[in-house]
NAD(P)H-quinone oxidoreductase (Actinoallomurus liliacearum), 323 residues
Amino acid sequence: MHAITIREYGDPEVLEWTDAPDPRPGYGEVVLRVAATAVNRADVLQRQGLYPPPPGASEILGLECSGTIVELGEGVDDRRVGDEVCALLTGGGYAERVAVPAAQLLPVPAGVGLVAAAALPEAACTVWLTVAMEADLRAGEVLLVHGGAGGIGSNAIQVGKALGATVAVTAGSAERLEQCRRLGADILVNYREQDFVAEIQARTGGANVILDNMGAAYLERNIDALATGGRLMIIGFQGGLTGRLDIGRLMAKRATVASTALRPQSVADKGRIVAAVRENLWPLVENGTVRPIIGHAVPLREAGEAHRLMEKGGTFGKILLTA
Ligand SMILES: NC(=O)c1ccc[n+]([C@@H]2O[C@H](COP(=O)([O-])OP(=O)(O)OC[C@H]3O[C@@H](n4cnc5c(N)ncnc54)[C@H](OP(=O)(O)O)[C@@H]3O)[C@@H](O)[C@H]2O)c1
């Protein structure tokens, strides 16, 4: 097959369309012919040599895809060659073919095309795991989504609204905030011009749940933006890895600081997350409440161009890579 491989760690031009070994299905796995995959921040870090794949994972980039099953491994008896699916991957999506545990497959939701379905698995699983399963966001609560216009954020706005929350977002421009508003966001904060702590406290009395992509840079301000009993859920470190935490301020609010990470989880745990997404979130996708938001679609062979777009910023939602 062909795949995007990394010549050496570095800038987007290190991504090359080359020959690569065909994947073989292990026990409980299927092989997909990839229709589309999508770019995630982790791909950029992996390309730079800052985020090695977990042991046993493909060296090829790509944490999600959609496609058609072309081969079944031993022990897979509930799938058929020819089934169209999308999948949460531990790697390997930037390729013509990928092997994936059957437990990590999701059906292509009714009303979403095969190609567009590639934009769903990583955001859907991250957001559902973090906001619904771990933070237990309840109707009537306030959810603050940092980076509301990004791939994860645009999904989180929709999920937060579907769960009955008031959704506040941060974004870097008025135009991006308007896009968030059209998706359902209730409270809009321009992080370049406004103090999100002051805005959230003044307008809501504090966020019950914060979905945070910034890590260290926002740690103390996030605690300040929480309501009593609030849950700060850290999923990224775009603002650095090492921060300062005032335990007194944390305890005064009886607040929780937690983190989630999808990729290093076992196949069994990913399977449980995927099953929960299928049961709870997929019906919302099928009835149109939650949509894949796709800002750009780029041919897979031009993955370097897609990485440049992600690093430049400004894409609303996901960047798709089409086969
Ligand atoms: N833990 C996990 O399992 C997991 C899984 C997937 C993703 N993630 C993480 O989730 C984050 C988002 O990923 P993505 O794929 O959605 O990336 P993305 O589409 O590139 O979105 C990045 C977002 O960061 C926002 N941002 C930049 N500077 C900011 C600031 N100072 N304050 C608030 N927001 C800021 C951007 O907002 P503007 O464009 O408006 O400036 C943009 O919306 C990344 O950190 C990624 O590593 C974690």
User: Anything to note?
Assistant: The chain has a mean pLDDT of 98. Residues 40-42, 122, 126, 146-147, 149-153, 170-172, 176, 191, 213-214, 235-236, 238, 260-262, 310, 313 surround NAP (CB under 6 Å). The two ends are 12 Å apart (CA to CA).
